[in-house]
Design goal:
heterodimer, A: mainly alpha, two-stranded antiparallel sheet, 13 helices, 4 strands, B: 323 residues, mainly alpha, 14 helices
């Protein structure tokens, strides 16, 4: 399994490099450091969210509320910043993380404590969180002129040629890779998703691991709430509407199995970069950006069919018993 | 075994019916405009098109599968009809194209799940992105609205008095699906399939054929919903019916269908559709914004799956698992 996952990541990596190479061959300006940095900056939020979503999918769950969590946490910090513009960035970051963690923990507890189906729980919390944004903001927008310079400037601040946003994605990637590879918790996540009954016998509580995954995923979504609001300089009820599906798409392209237990950090990041490269290349090669979604769809379907061929167990997320 | 199950289902449906009655009394006493034949007839447009899809989707979920691409199929079929209308094709041809596109899209889903061995949630997230993406790729930010005048009859016409054609169609379909699921051998097989696919296969059920046909039926009904919605709106944008997949799934689950498969009824689904449709409409009459409604629906969704678990825990009733 380890080998097939590594081979898959390598193949996806080669595809991304080939994609970069062929676009660069036609348009040399594409591979300039500045443009590549921009692609990374563009994909940073997607990478962070997809890493969180990966943890959840690994434990046989799915988090449909990730974008609603992002939007609600984003609105919370935007309102905080509007009312206390001089508080600086640190409290904003802490509030975003706290809000996201709380919202994620709600999902986790419902799934763990009540053994409710993840798809229903997160579908439900998705609507609830969206509705709460409206109640909280009264339906108003928070625009850039109501945001403090520090609030807006933090994500754009450049360090060694990369924005703080990009650095966060890089740090997040390295941290996730270390967590999944070298820590007990990371290995437990794989074990809980790969075979819950076996995991239980070895002393791992799959329910607890699920709850942990949702909580971490929520914390990331909360942080991304601030990043999103600061990057696009606006907060309103519908920000990131439907983005959860793009996050899940990135995971699927990256080789995370919806049946749980299979997926790598490298694969997920490559999946995000794949989407990012295509999104940035389309306008350059004169194809309407409206094709982006269709291309993603083709890639997901092809990737799903290829990985289903290789895998022996065909457990669907909705089946309690293997078919 | 069938008697207690029948009783518990009866209880669930009578609860929904009770909610509906309470709803009617509330709205009738709060708004003098509510109890008017034409008001009520207007209100049914809040749920008819979604309910047309909820019926086959209920069968699919009872059989242990799911289809998230239904709203994207609406977009695809609507775009196909719009382009055909531009090419000068008349109403019967348009309807055939709408239904045909839906059927074809459903068959693609079915093929991916049966021949491709892809879990249905992954397959339909992929085709959702693909179908919606294709609609965007073809239309971009354009609008198609060159429909012949006679085309508007499906969404705007009335069969008898205040009974709209949409509602009449829904009633006919409900009867057909109800008889199919509850009174035929095939219907019983669908329950068997969802309750335990392995046992169903060993009992000689052609599992894949059932799955394929159910996906095809869901696609066909999505095509029908596309005809109705396009005819009612008189225009096609690629964002048509955005987010409906989650509303329709909520309808099915609130109707008492278990996401684990093997449990649910057609009357329950129809009642849930009517309840949700009238809540939406009634809140509109009372000037409550629709997004507040989403909090209620989300909380209800979680409550519906949590109540059996909590009841079991508190009163120690015999385990009535969700499947």
């Amino acid at each position: 399994m380890q080998n097939s996952a590594a081979r898959r990541d390598l193949a996806l990596g080669v595809i991304v490099v080939l994609l970069l190479g062929s676009v660069t061959a036609a348009f040399p300006q594409f591979a300039q450091p500045g443009n590549l940095a921009e692609i990374l900056d563009d994909s940073a939020i997607l990478i962070l969210l997809a890493l969180g979503q990966m943890l959840v999918i690994l434990t046989r769950g799915i988090d449909l509320s990730i974008a609603a969590n992002l939007a609600l946490s984003g609105m919370v910090v935007a309102l905080f910043n509007r009312n206390y513009p001089d508080a600086g960035v640190l409290p904003v970051l802490l509030i975003a993380l706290a809000s996201g963690t709380l919202l994620g923990a709600v999902n986790g507890l419902l799934v763990w404590r009540f053994k409710l189906p993840p798809i229903v729980v997160t579908l439900g919390t998705m609507s609830v969180y969206r509705g709460l944004i409206y109640l909280l903001s009264g339906g108003t927008w928070v625009n850039d002129n109501q945001m403090s310079p520090a609030f807006l400037g933090f994500v754009r601040f450049e360090l060694l040629g990369l924005t703080v946003l990009s650095w966060l994605a890089l740090v997040g990637t390295v941290a996730a890779a270390l967590l999944m590879r070298y820590t007990v918790v990371g290995r437990d996540l794989y074990a809980a998703g790969g075979n819950p009954s076996a995991a239980t016998y070895t002393g791992i509580d799959p329910g607890r691991m699920q709850c942990f995954a949702y909580t971490i995923c929520g914390a990331i979504a909360g942080l991304c709430g601030y990043l999103w609001v600061a990057r696009f300089a606006v907060a309103y009820t519908d920000i990131a509407l439907g983005f959860e599906l793009q996050v899940i798409a990135a995971c699927l392209i990256g080789g995370v199995a919806i049946a749980g237990g299979i997926g790598t950090v490298a694969g997920v990041v490559l999946g995000c970069l794949f989407i990012g490269v295509i999104r940035n290349a389309l306008p350059l090669i004169g194809v309407s950006p409206f094709w982006q979604m269709g291309i993603n769809g083709v890639v997901i379907v092809v990737a799903a069919v290829l990985s289903a061929r290789r895998r022996e167990d065909k457990r669907a997320i909705l089946e309690t018993h293997p078919a | 075994m069938s008697t207690p199950r029948f009783k518990s289902l009866l209880r669930w449906e009578s609860m929904l019916a009770l909610v509906l009655v309470v709803e009617f009394v509330c709205f009738a006493s709060l708004s003098p405009y509510f109890l008017n034949v034409w008001t009520l007839s207007d209100a049914t447009f809040n749920f008819t098109e979604r309910a047309v899809i909820a019926l086959p989707l209920a069968l699919l979920i009872i059989a242990g599968e799911i289809d998230i691409s239904v709203a994207a199929i609406i977009a695809l079929a609507s775009v196909a009809m719009g382009l055909a209308a531009v090419a000068g094709i008349d109403t019967p041809g348009l309807v055939a194209i709408g239904l045909g596109t839906g059927l074809l899209a459903g068959m693609i889903n079915g093929a991916l799940v049966t021949f491709g061995r892809v879990p249905s949630i992954v397959a339909t997230i992929g085709t959702m992105t693909l179908f919606r993406g294709f609609a965007y790729a073809v239309l971009g930010d354009r609008v198609l609205k060159d429909y012949p005048p006679s085309f508007s009859v499906f969404g705007q016409g009335y069969a008898v008095g205040a009974l709209s054609i949409e509602l009449a169609l829904l009633i006919v379909l409900t009867v057909v699906f109800g008889i199919f699921l509850h009174l035929t051998r095939w219907g019983r097989t669908i329950y068997a399939l969802g309750a335990n696919p392995t046992a169903a296969r060993w009992s000689g059920v052609p599992v894949d054929r059932y799955r394929f046909l159910l996906f095809a039926a869901t696609g066909l009904c999505s095509g029908l919903a596309a005809v109705l919605l396009t005819s009612r709106l008189g225009s096609t944008r690629p964002s048509i019916a955005q987010g409906w997949e989650l509303e329709i799934i909520s309808m099915v689950i609130l109707g008492g269908v278990s996401v684990w498969g093997g449990k649910g009824t057609i009357p329950g689904v129809l009642l849930a559709a009517v309840v949700l449709g009238f809540v939406n409409f009634g809140l509109g009459l009372l000037n409550v914004p629709g997004i507040v409604m989403s909090i209620i629906v989300g909380a209800l969704l979680i409550a519906v799956v949590a109540i059996p678990v909590l009841a079991e825990r508190w009163w120690g009733r015999p385990a009535r698992r969700l499947s």
